[in-house]
Every structure is written in structure tokens, then in C-alpha cells.
Amino acid sequence: MDKIVIHGGRPLYGRVSISGAKNAALPLIAATLLTPGWHTLHNVPDLRDTRTMLRLLEILGARWQRQGSTVRINTDQLTGVEAPYELVKTMRASVLVLGPLLARLKTARVSLPGGCAIGARPINYHLSGFEQLGIRTSLREGYVEARVEEQLSGGTVYFDKPSVTGTENLLMASVFAQGETVIKNAAREPEVGNLIEMLETMGAVITGKGSDRLTVSGVGELCPAEATIIPDRIETGTYLMAVAAAGGEVEITDCIPAHLPALTEKLQACGVEIGVRDSGFTVRCPLNQGLACPLESVDVTTLPYPGFPTDLQAQFMALMALGSGASVIHETIFENRFMHVAELERMGANIKIDGAAAIVRGVGRSGLSGAQVMATDLRASASLVIAALASRGVTEVSRIYHLERGYEKMVEKLAALGADIKRIPEA
Ligand code: EPZ
Q1: Given strand 357-361, what is the order of strands in its sheet?
Q2: pLDDT band of 279, cuts 50, 70, 90
Q3: Of 95, 98, 111, 336, whose Cβ has the fewest other Cβ atoms within 10 Å?
Q4: Mean pLDDT of 259-282
Q5: What confidence tier does 282 reach under pLDDT thresholds 50, 70, 90?
Q6: Average pLDDT of 148-155?
Q7: Beta strands 357-361; 326-330: pairing state
Q8: How far is the CA of 195 from the centre of ligand 1 (A)?
Q9: Mutate to test the pocket of ligand 1, among 97, 158, 165, 185 (most ligand atoms within 8 A of CB)
Q10: Residue ranges matching CATH 3.65.10.10 in the chain
């Protein structure tokens, strides 16, 4: 396994281009299962997780080829309906093949994903939603076995909590259902909107995009897709906070500022200078006698979109560790998303967990020092990189395969901005 070594204390300057969104690419790749033919997806990030999803489609009988950031997928011959445990345990988003397999082949067998570092991550909302469409599901030997009883018929689905992949699975499962399917308390994340746009180009009839109430009118068939993955708002937010932590001035291009309303507000409240353009941000934290501008400590509560994203919580905590006061960070989406706290404390952060809240007492711009730390999950690893960029001395981040699930070329992108960062084999 490799590790990342960062010599902290260097400001970032220049420009960085944002890749396609992991959490849009995964459902859009899965949606190509809905109908045979050659599908074309543009701006697909080359990540561990997108490679895993493409591998899963191969197991199901699809073929694919990548040319740069364009991936072409052929789903003429589906030879299987099973997503095996060995693969699903590495990426829970594999459950996204349930919806399209049930829509097209009326049956599917997918390993239960099991928990992960950040929480139990059940899929009960997905399964109860399927039941409303005439799908019978049962759990056997750790697998979800699902099949359409007689026919897929539209129904009303209500999510107790807005579930991103739950909404995406139900959208895909219902495109051929007889009549109308209404999804209430649907997730409003931009990645759901990207999937809706792709399904519409294929011939699906969906209303309510961007709202918490979606209506799908079943159609007889769909045609192959050509779609473009939206920019990754979580990658964008991660780089905004990397510059806020390290100091400097960076232009972030090929992104959609409108997808980050909450983070933009919070960073401006911290005293970070944020400029918004059509397809990008400028972020500026000038240095004074070698230190970046003091950071105001600001409270944050994670919420479903358009609230503050849970996927940026760990990164924001690293930033608040450098703050000039106390910040309360309340994580309301996942029950165990503070794995990064212990590692940040090893770098000198002062953080106290109290249930679903973490009280971060900032140690100031020069309060963190490098250490050997371990990545525990995707966004926690990004948090450690941000802290390392702002720390005095050297930080080694191990288990960086977590990072590579969701960030394309992060080491190269940060090095191009002036960071002293290297990836080296772990002895
Ligand atoms: C998606 O996960 C994202 N993953 C996550 O990003 C993200 O953190 C999460 O949405 C929340 O925004 C992808 O899109 C591939 P949920 P998902 O269903 O769909 C509970 C990253 O770092 N719930 O919206 O699995 C659940 O426990 C990853 O890129 C149920 O109880 O999340 C959580 O408390 C991490 N039963 C809440 O709902 C269900 O059936 C929201 O989860 C489904 C969800």
C-alpha cells in the first residue's frame, strides 16, 4: 500500500480543474443497464469507485471502453443479475444496479452492502420503495433477492429521510412501471438531477427535478444514453478548503459554484475571500508575515442538500482546527462520521466529541504539526491532507486507497498548486 508524504506550511497558487462527480458517475453508469445499445458518458472521473462500478457491469455482461474522460458502455448482452459480495463489500454504491436490473430483467440478487466506517448504511428505504412497485424482496444468505411478482406497477414511495441512492434506485426501477410512480421526500442532490437528465434523454418521463417530489410516468422502452457527468461539488469544496487552510490564491475551474451554497456561506463567514464566476471559483487567503489570514471559527450542521454536505464535514473540521475560536460541528446524517477526529488530534487539534457534535477549539494558523496518521474513510483522508498542508513539519498519511476512491489525481493537482506532496510506497 502507498502513503502520501506532505511537507506542510506552503501556500497554494495557480489553478485547478475539477473532475466529474463520483456520486453522479456511479448512478449514471448503473443506469446504462436499463436498455441495450452503446451508451456514451462524458466527464467520467477515473477513480477506484468508478472502476469498481464498471467491473460490476462487466460481471453482469456489459462491455466498456474509456477514451480519456469519455466512457462508452455496451449493455446488449446482460448475462447475470447478481452483484457478488466480494465486490459490493468494497463499494456499497453497487446497490445501484438493483433498480435498473429490476426494471429491465425483473429480477436481481445483490449482496447486502453491510456497514462501513461511517455508519450502518442500511438500504431498507430502497427495499420498501421497491415493494410499492410490485417487487418482492427477501434477504437470504446475506443477499437481497428481488423479483417483480407480476408486473412493475407505479406506486407512491415515501422516504423517512431523503436518501440519495434510494431516490436514484427508485427512479431507475420505475421508468418502465405501468402508470405513475410518485417519490416523496426525495433527495435533491445535484447528482440526482444529473441522473434525471440522463434518463430523460433516454426517453423517460420524469417531473419535479430539483424538488423533493418526483413523478415518473412509465414508458415502454428507452434508447441508449449520451450524457455528461456534472463536476464534483465535493472535490470542489475540498480544494476550496485546502486553499483556506494552506493560504494562497487559487482559481478553481470546471465546477458549478451554485452546487455549494452552504459551504460558500460558511467559508465567507470564516473570513476566506471567495469569488464566484460562471464556471468557477477564486479563493484567496493572503499571507501576512508568512502566515495566512486568521480564520474565524464557525458552527456547522450537516443536512441533506442544499444544506451543508456531510461529505464536506471532515474537511471543514480540519479547517476549524486552525480557527481562532471554538466551532461546533453537528453531524446529522451518519452516526459514525468522526473517525478523522482521533487522527487530527495526533496533529495537535483540540476536538471534543459529544454525541453527534464535535466541539473544535481552534489552535490557530500555526497550531498543527505534522505526524504519521491513518486514513479511515474517503472524506476523512481528505481532511488529513488539508490539515497536513497547514501543519508545521512532515505528515505521512497511510491507507491512501481510501482517498483514491473519490479524488482523481489529488497528489498531482496539489503539487501543481505548489504543495510539497508525494506519494511513496509504504515500506
Ligand atoms: C450518498 O450515500 C453518497 N454516496 C454519500 O457519499 C453521501 O454521504 C450520502 O449520499 C449523503 O449525502 C453516493 O451517492 C454513492 P443516503 P447514500 O441514503 O445514498 C439513512 C462519499 O463520501 N438511510 O442519502 O448511501 C442513512 O443511514 C459518500 O462520497 C437509511 O436509514 O446515503 C443516512 O443516515 C459517503 N435507510 C441517511 O439515510 C436507507 O435505506 C442518508 O443516507 C437509506 C439511507
Answers
A1: 300-301, 326-330, 357-361, 350-354
A2: confident
A3: 336
A4: 95
A5: very high
A6: 94
A7: antiparallel
A8: 16
A9: 165
A10: 2-19+231-425, 22-228
Where do the H-state alpha helices sit in 149-271?
164-174, 190-202, 233-246, 261-270
Does the 2-19+231-425 domain belong in CATH 3.40.640.10?
Answer: no
Q: Scan for cell 487552510, then name that residue.
A: 245
**22-228 maps to CATH 3.65.10.10:** yes
Cβ–ligand 1 distance for 188 under 6 Å, the answer: no
Report the alpha-carbon distance of residue 296 to residue 353 in Å, rounded. 20
**What's the pLDDT score for residue 89?**
92
Residue 190 confidence class, pLDDT cut points 50, 70, 90: very high
Q: Which residue's alpha carbon is nearest to atom 8 within ligand 1?
A: 311
Angle 22-31/190-202 helices, nearest 10 degrees?
30
Q: Whose CA is nearest to atom 24 of ligand 1?
A: 163
Does 23 sit in the ligand 1 pocket, CB within 6 Å? yes
Q: Whose CA is nearest to atom 43 of ligand 1?
A: 123
How far, in Å, is the centroid of ligand 1 from the Cα of 153?
A: 26
Q: Is the CB of 161 under 6 A from ligand 1?
A: yes
- Ligand 1 centroid vs 366 CA: distance in angstroms? 35
Whose alpha carbon is nearest atom 14 of ligand 1? 23
Q: Which atom of ligand 1 is nearest to the CA of 123?
A: 40
How remote is the CA of residue 87 from the centroid of ligand 1, in Å? 18
Share of the chain above pLDDT 70, in %: 100
Question: Given pLDDT bands bounded at 50, 70 and 90, which one contains residue 56?
Answer: very high
Q: How does the average pLDDT of the chain come out, rounded? A: 96
Q: Over range 86-113, report the average pLDDT.
A: 96
Categorize the per-residue pLDDT at 114 as very low, low, confident or very high, splitting at 50, 70 and 90: confident
Confidence of residue 238 (pLDDT cuts 50, 70, 90): very high
Q: Which atom of ligand 1 is nearest to the CA of 23?
A: 14
Distance CA(176)–CA(34), nearest Å, equals 9
Higher-confidence residue of 425 and 259: namely 259
* Catalytic residue flag (residue 116): yes
Contact 210, 193 (CB under 8 A): yes
Ligand 1 geometric centre to CA of 311 (Å): 10
Q: Distance between CA 366 and CA 418 in Å, rounded?
A: 19
Work out whether the CA dihedral 181, 307, 197, 31 comes out positive or negative: negative
pLDDT at 115 over 80: no
